[in-house]
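Review box. Two proteins, two foldings.
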Amino acid sequence: MGVAGSELVDPADPDVAHPAGDTVIIVTARRRAMEDYTAMGAAMAVENFVEKYQVPVAGIHFTEGQLKGKTLRRMGVDLHYDDDEEEIEEAEVWGVDTVWVKHPADE
């Protein structure tokens, strides 16, 4: 669940994620070469997550360990959901609106 003002949102909910028919893409700082690994069972490969939760995405972009802000701007992203404060700040520096998503491990 994420927080937009005081409203809790679920970015995987298609009615919330793209109510106006917007295109949804996943931009991850993960490295594509590491997708076959799951850090001690704690992480799920992005493609597996998309399939398991049937997230309606148009594509997946890997930043190969780089912060996402510049990539988001270059791709024309208007709104970005993230659970990493540094990524939120970087996206905002590049003029991309953000929604902080609380990571399940932080609950």
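Next protein.
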Amino acid sequence: MGSRVTIHYPWHPLKGQRAEVLRRIRTGEGVSLEVRLNDGVVKRLPEWMAQADVCATMAVSEKPLCGMAALRELRAQLDAWARGAEVGSSSTIEATEEDCDPATGRQGSGAADVKAMAT
């Protein structure tokens, strides 16, 4: 491909480094970039990590954006998945208005009774 990108994701250890794009890989989760760093090392990262406009909106906040109940339920789902237990369409994570709005990631923005199906 020959184009170059800058890694903009604020918490990536290579933030600010430029890399040559070797190829774009489309998956069910989105698009990944296979890049070659200046030292010749080849890495793969999600394309959004190289999008300045996306990463510019990310910041550490003083208040958590999701409630503990939602995080505990997510942890339980991940633990079940790691044990090989079936985590299917009957499993849900429920958020309340005190938890988070999945569309905005903001706490208390009207996400009452939102159900996110675990896959």
